[in-house]
Write a structure and sequence with these properties.
This protein has 366 residues and is α/β, with parallel strands linked by helices. The chain is built from 15 helices and 13 strands. 47% of the residues lie in helices and 11% in strands. Catalyzes the decarboxylation of four acetate groups of uroporphyrinogen-III to yield coproporphyrinogen-III.
């Protein structure tokens, strides 16, 4: 097992003391980087990029070569699992994902089965390749995060056939035929647990569940159709690998209403969108979990002074809840493709600078 040059991200997830607040960005390898766009052009398509371990490794490392980030995240897509189920994933130019065979009827749902993990070997090969590429002078630069979509979020795409403004098809099935929806979610939960376990086996050092569309559900329905199945996924994970604990992060966009319940899900950390105050979130979760977030991604379109001010505000909000440890700085959702890379440089600098200053202040007051 290769030693880490920088393990601050993992220590923060375990709520251990850190010298500064670690930072990574959701969608940090993406279209805002010119080098990513060049690699994607060579790959020929998004799926050509995501399904080629060499290309996936290349783009995963690009933001780390440009910015002093504290974690890498596997370059992949949340829809790899339903794609392996045979639903026929494609990405049209300038459009979002589409499934050729969405789940619309009872017969469609009856045919659904968890995929053979061999269909996803390209993902596990990418994880192993990235881990090797992160080694520098005999030590690994930063930890690697693996991830999956949540069972509910995957189901949204599987039933709708793509993105949606109102989720009327998936919610219609949920309300009219909850038995069909529970079958989809049960299969998804089994598949996601197996998928994340295979990523851990291949070398992922933390894993994250993206519950992107959980926040579209009504209270009560969220617990039954999203949170309960994330709990099943987490319970099914093998969280010890090669003598190391593998932390789990859960992120429900729009999930501020349910922080207390998320903190009891079995996860080590809860991701927060930008609508939640971090000091209040610490009080509500009682220090049971680390917190990740939660800068509004559009802050990165401000000038340098504005970016620095808002970064400090997030850090100060967290520290107001009782010290700075147990926090991973991130955006409240994925970075926009239109973000100037120079803005990310400013953000990373300010987060590292100000979080060090907060610890020095807290140490002087102790």
């Amino acid at each position: 097992m290769t030693a880490l040059q920088n393990d601050i991200f993992l220590r923060a997830l375990r709520r251990q003391p850190t010298e500064y607040t670690p930072l990574w960005l959701m969608r940090q390898a993406g279209r805002y980087l010119p080098e990513y766009n060049a690699t994607r052009a060579r790959a020929g398509s998004f799926l050509g990029l995501a399904k080629n371990p060499a290309f996936a490794t290349e783009v995963t490392l690009q933001p780390l070569d440009r910015f002093p980030l504290d974690a890498a995240i596997l370059f992949s897509d949340i829809l790899t699992v339903p794609d392996a189920m045979g639903l026929g994933l494609s990405f049209a130019q300038g459009e979002g994902p589409r499934f050729a065979r969405p789940l619309r009827t009872e017969a469609d749902v009856a045919r659904l089965a968890a995929p053979d993990m061999g269909e996803l070997q390209y993902v596990f090969d990418a994880v192993a390749s990235i881990r090797r590429a992160l080694v520098q002078d005999g030590r690994q630069r930063v930890p690697l995060i693996g991830f999956s979509g949540s069972p509910w979020t995957l189901a949204c795409y599987m039933v709708e056939g793509g993105g949606s403004d109102d989720f009327r098809l998936v919610k219609g099935m949920m309300y009219a035929r909850p038995d069909l929806m529970h079958r989809i979610l049960e299969i998804n939960a089994q598949a996601v647990s197996a998928y994340l376990n295979a990523q851990i086996e291949a070398g992922a050092q933390a894993v994250m569940l993206f519950d992107t569309w959980g926040g579209t559900l009504a209270d009560g329905m969220y617990q039954r159709f999203s949170l309960d199945y994330m709990r099943k996924v987490i319970a099914g994970l093998r969280r010890e690998h090669q003598g190391e604990n593998v932390p789990v992060i859960v992120f429900t966009k729009g999930g501020g209403l349910w922080l207390e319940q998320l903190a009891d899900s079995g996860a080590d950390a809860i991701g927060l969108d930008w609508t939640v105050n971090l000091a209040a979130a610490r009080r509500r979760t009682g220090g049971r979990v680390a917190l990740q977030g939660n800068l509004d991604p559009t802050v990165l379109f401000a000038d340098e002074a504005g970016i620095r001010e808002q970064a400090r505000r997030v850090l100060d909000d967290y520290a107001a809840g009782g010290g700075s440890d147990g926090h991973v700085f991130n955006l409240g959702h994925g970075i926009s493709q239109f973000t100037p890379p120079e803005s990310v440089t400013v953000l990373v600098d300010e987060v590292h600078r100000h979080s060090r200053a907060l610890r020095q202040r807290d140490g002087a007051q102790a």
